[in-house]
Amino acid sequence: MSNWYMLTLTGEDQPGIVARVTQALFERDMILGEASMLRLGGNFTIMMMVGGGLDVPALEQALEPVTGALGLSLHIDPMRGGLHRHVPPNLMVRVSGADRAGIVARVTGVLAETGFNILDLESDVAGTAEKPVYIMQIAGVATVPLESLETAVSDLRDEGIEVNISPVEMLVG
Amino acid sequence: MRPLQILTIPDERLKQDSAPVTEFDDNLREFVARLELTRQQGPAAVGIAAPQVGHFQRIAIVDCSNTRKPVPNHGNLVLINPEITHWDGYEVGREGCLSVPDYTGNVIRATQIRLRASDEHGEEKEYEMEGYEARAVQHEIDHLDGILFIDRVVSRRTDLFKRKVYR
Predict the structure, then answer these.
(1) Which residue of chain A comes nearest to B45, CA vs CA?
(2) Rounded CA separation A141/B97 (Å)
(3) What is the CATH number of the domain that holds A46?
């Protein structure tokens, strides 16, 4: 493997984007690593590790017919790192509260102070347009005991943010 | 005694059904001992099933007595021809597998089970299990049916909670 790139594509969602993008990469002998596609606010988003011999301009050129035709924004970063570097989470933090500015910064700030490393974060706004509720799930690695985290988040509960912390016990069998 | 070799994906043999054990003899007990040795050599494995070492009989071992955080358990269990006779509840938990290196994923399993299995001497036993140990047993019985946890992984955004049903 010569080079890994982090390729980011966003745009209006429509069927067939992943198929056309990956076909264009395959035709230029590029291989895929980890990838994550999500619809965010109805938009198509994907981040994917792409490896192979092309440099950034050549990669852009290879994808231009697809991104042009589908109206996608493309961003490419050369990346360090590679496959087989998974870190399993040992803690799950579930958060919900009346939606207001700063809720994510507040919660993740408290977690960061304890040294908590976020591996995976998903958030969404539920409820109704009049009474929106922010809901977030954070999986990560804590290096301090659960009790210390519970103490750290107790202020958040006083502010009306529901925070539920539970250990993730991995099972290998 | 030497440990056995673990089959890893994409080995097709992991997908095959295993046959019930009919002879509870010294050969069986010797195999169980080697299977247990193999489990202990694996990285922190709480269970192992015979097909993972290329032996296609309904034999599994589960031992949740030594987890980082203690969980309700029945000690070291040799499960021959195991059968789950009752399921209740479900929850999501994170699983990995000796046969699936470098991958973990979330899987939905029953939280409470009733299990019937023989031990290595052919004595039939029944167990009531919950949580982590119940999960381990379901993971191992899947192996006996040629199913891997990667066949059951749920997506990040899968709805994991029971919805209330309004009538």
Answers:
(1) A172
(2) 20
(3) 3.30.70.260
Q: Which residues of B114-124 are buried (b: 16+ CB within 10 A; e: fewer)?
A: ebebbebeeee
Taking residue B156's Cβ as centre, other Cβ atoms within 10 Å add up to 13
B137 and B129 Cβ atoms separated by less than 8 Å: yes
Are the Cβ atoms of A169 and B102 closer than 8 angstroms? no
Give the model's confidence band at B162: pLDDT under 50 very low, under 70 low, under 90 confident, else very high. very low
Nearest CA in chain A to B102: A84
A140 touching B, CB under 8 A?
A: no
Mean pLDDT along residues B97-109? 94
CA-based Rg of chain A, rounded to a whole angstrom?
A: 20
Strand, helix or coil for residue B57: strand
Tens of pLDDT along A155-165?
Answer: 999 888 999 99
Are A172 and B44 in contact (CB < 8 Å)?
yes
Domain containing residue B124: 12-151
Tell me, yes or no, if A80 comes closer than 8 A to chain B by beta carbon. no
Is residue B36 part of the annotated active site? The answer reads no
